[in-house]
Amino acid sequence: MRFTRSRPLRAVASALSLLLALPACAKTTQPAAAATDADPALWVVRDKDTTIYLFGTIHVLKPGLTWFDEAVKTAFDRSGELVLETVLPDPQAMAGLVQVAGRARPGTPPLTERVPADKRAAFTAAVTAAGLPANAFDSFQPWLAATQLSIGPVNKVGYETAQAPEAVLTQAAKAAGKPVRGLETPEQQLGYFSTLSDAAQMEMLTSSLDELPKVDGTIGKMVDDWAHGRPDALAAQMNDSLKDSPEVARVLLLDRNRRWAEWIRQRMTRPGTVFVAVGSGHLAGSGSVQAQLAKQGIRAQRVKY
Question: b/e map of 46-55 (b: 16 or more CB within 10 Å)?
Fold first, then answer.
């Protein structure tokens, strides 16, 4: 069971929206950027009295992309509620949940001793470069170290969760008085990681160490595909690394897509218009939410701009 070593950040990014909303180790303020039009992919499923829009998000963006307009804005304005992967609690509560979910079992050796010998120097360097003591993650599971070490560099090159669709849509929904709901709870999402096998978690950590110097290019390509409405190209980047680990693909992608498709099927039994926004990796590929809906006889249609 192995992650493709060149793509661990894509696996992390395709997994959970909350990972890139965890407190970052460091962050820089970027100058304002000129506006650039983006047309990310949008789908719709409907029957005689129910309409559900499916919008693929990317969980961090730099300032300057104007995506909340045209077809996306029209669909959102027509919707009576916003549904996200999860609704995050306040930062203090979120930090507490992370501490609980990411803590290693009692009696587990310190993480610095568990990291493979040939990766320990790189691990220590990455932790201290984030401004943390070398033993900062010793009492935690490898997945938490992997995600935290990946988040800091993403923020340093200018990507922000405040610019991402989840934050923008949530703010717009609250301003319009629309309810905001989650398909999963933060506890559920964190639990997906903490229940991964030790081997899968450690591979995630060591692979992330290899990828850290390439983070700007990796995320940049993902954002470019998202902005130009290329879901299949984006899915190829974000999900291919998961194929090398059936366990991770099942827990973080396929099982969740099946559950979300079932939620949509059940929601179609009630009238109304709903705007569903989830990570773009869930809306492309053979195991996508749309593919799961098709198995139930529900067709998702791409919305044209």
Answer: eeeebbbbbb
